[in-house]
Amino acid sequence: MDIAETLEKLISLQAVDSGLDELEKLKKNFRAEISTLETAVIECKAKLQTEKKAQEELAKKRKNLEMEAGTLDGKIKKYQGQEGEVKSNEQFTALKTEIEKAKQEKAQAEEKELEILFQEDEQKKKIQAAQEELTRAEKKAADDKKALDQKIADCEKASVDKKTDRQACLAVLDSEFAQGYEALRHNGKKIALAQVLEDATCSGCRMQVAPQILNEINRNLAIQRCTCGRYIYRKD
Questions:
Q1: Are 3 and 222 in contact (CB under 8 A)?
Q2: Which is nearest to 163 in space by CA: 27, 31, 19?
């Protein structure tokens, strides 16, 4: 076995896998951006519905006040119609008191109704603003999603090419190292081939590499592994 050649093959395979990992990371980020855009639209829709609900509540209150004012107006007319039928000053005074009370209550209801009309005008502005915000969010989501979908498609196309390269790299690698490398990747070690750094530590786990292993690497006797399981090599 040519150790230098095997290392070059492992390094090439590692480079392809790093490229694939980066493409997956990019796709994940692009999908997260799409999700953020969709969430923004959902939030805008919820805000618009909240503003519309507030408008409905105001309209309901105003309708109730209109009915209340109408009922009080009917009561006032009824009392006023009874003024000529009273037999005593006490009854007349009591009737006048009820009429005055009803008039005050009617005036209060009409004043509240007017306040709500102003509130409804302001609420209409809020609804319009929320609708415009939703329209902008939907347009941005549609435009940006189109661009992001294209980026995801480009990444997927690049991944197909790199997977072809990966198979080619594995095909020319000795089965022992191909299986060992794949096992490391399968067990979560994205970096299956690590460099021994100048301070004699493994670039994968940052642990100190044993002197005897360093000696064998330096003498190019065999491809060694760190205690973390990764294949390790020293760059010339």
A1: yes
A2: 19
Span 116-136, mean pLDDT? 98
- Quick check: 201 pLDDT over 80? yes
pLDDT band at 220 (very low <50, low <70, confident <90, very high): confident
pLDDT at 235: 82
Whole-model pTM: value is 0.78
Query: Where do the domains of the chain lie, and which CATH numbers do they carry?
Result: 20-159 (1.10.287.1490)
Give the span between the Cα atoms of 138 and 42, in whole angstroms.
9
For the cut 80, the answer to whether the pLDDT of residue 49 exceeds it is: yes
